[in-house]
Amino acid sequence: xxxxxxxxxxxxxxxxxxxxxxxxxxxxxxxxxxxxxxxxxxxxxxxxxxxxxxxxxxxxxxxxxxxxxxxxxxxxxxxxxxxxxxxxxxxxxxxxxxxxxxxxxxxxxxxxxxxxxxxxxxxxxxxxxxxxxxxxxxxxxxxxxxxxxxxxxxxxxxxxxxxxxxxxxxxxxxxxxxxxxxxxxxxxxxxxxxxxxxxxxxxxxxxxxxxxxxxxxxxxxxxxxxxxxxxxxxxxxxxxxxxxxxxxxxxxxxxxxxxxxxxxxxxxxxxxxxxxxxxxxxxxxxxxxxxxxxxxxxxxxxxxxxxxxxxxxxxxxxxxxxxxxxxxxxxxxxxxxxxxxxx
Length: 343
Prior knowledge:
Elements: H1 21-30, H2 36-44, E1 49-53, H3 59-66, H4 70-73, E2 76-81, E3 84-88, E4 94-95, E5 98-102, E6 107-109, E7 113-122, E8 127-129, E9 137-145, E10 151-158, E11 163-164, E12 170-177, E13 183-191, E14 196-197, E15 201-206, E16 222-226, E17 233-234, E18 239-247, E19 264-272, E20 275-276, E21 282-285, E22 295-302, E23 309-319, E24 323-324, E25 333-340
């Protein structure tokens, strides 16, 4: 903050007794630098310049920056001041409008508190930036009982990301309460702050509850697919990958659970031949409950091995502290990855 007085430009980092969730989001993204996905995210939130203090990087990050292919990351070197390097971020097209796809199943239990959600992406395949003010966004869920015409409203809030990259979608979750009566309903979601309303969807309210990833691991099943072409990887550089998982079982995948027991996440591991590379495993959460027949898309930036060569990236779902899906008969997704040396 002291050195920012040399230029008096706004900066995304600072010092405070309060750490907003938006700052934590930026930190998470920055960990993957100098990846193209991260530079596009920073450009989408309005940043124009990136300053890298090379003398403050730990050894692995320093090697990553030394071997980075700037053209691929979208960065352009502007100036060097001793160990400090100034880069220009790429320009990206942005939009203030969102396309929303409400991810609601066609059957739900009555009088239940659920974790529901939707997919959001910028219209016209452009990056979306959160308008001001930042913070929780009001959401209104409208239930209409078809037999009686009775209308019920549920109000809550959702937390949007600072930005959504062009051509990508974000899964956003929020809590809702279902009606107390059985029957057939239409369900609509509106976000007044953003001027968004989803088309009505038909939902059957039922008295019985479904088994979950906590209570019935034997009913867990999934089908995996890559949303993108087989990934190209460079040693020590983050690998961007998109994976879709479809719930082909008979149990709900829980997004959250007490002490994480039964919460479903995507896990991954790297293998060289048949040997796992230790210290490179990771996880990605789901943001809302996934019912049988629904699917969920994961975007992840995964650290790659430091040595070039042929590897296998193995991905699969896990019900935390309960069971890996492979233990219930679902084959993991194995992706062959050739890790190239830096140019």
